[in-house]
Amino acid sequence: MVNSELLLDASTIIGIAMICMFVLLMARASGQAALFIRSRVSTPDRIMRMASLPLLLLLVAGPQHVKLITGFILILGALVSIRLQHLRLLADGLQPGFVHRITALSLLGSVGFSAFVGAMVGRS
Q1: Are 74 and 113 within 8 A, CB to CB?
Q2: Are 99 and 42 in contact (CB under 8 A)?
Q3: Do 56 and 94 contact (CB within 8 A), yes or no?
């Protein structure tokens, strides 16, 4: 069994690395970054964001079986949201290379989030 503290550390390191790489990407592609910042937020993304807070509270404070189900829902929702974001950014006219880099960073964030979920599920 993996120590939940180790997973928390891993999620923190991945999160910091993702933020640094995002800042570098935005600095290098300033024209695309402006389009990215102005792009619209889709309705499924808004719904996922609103649903995430109560789910995160359940993940941290719920009983073990609820944590497991909640973690699965959050990770699945994050992956669906990443796919929808990818399609939306392409439809908004951003360059495919830039969109692929954003998607890769989102997937890296998803790995970090999965480590956080694993740490919360592993906690008693």
Answers
A1: yes
A2: no
A3: no
Contact 89, 39 (CB under 8 A): yes
Copy the structure tokens of residue 5: 């503290």
- Angstrom CA distances, 21 to 75, 82, 106, stand at 22, 17, 11
Give percent of the chain with pLDDT exceeding 70: 98
d(CA 84, CA 90): 10
d(CA 103, CA 99): 6
CA within 13 Å, CB half, 30: 1
Tokens of 65: 């079986």
The Cα 96–Cα 12 span in angstroms is 29
Residue-wise pLDDT for 79-113, tens only, equals: 988 998 899 889 888 999 999 999 999 999 999 99
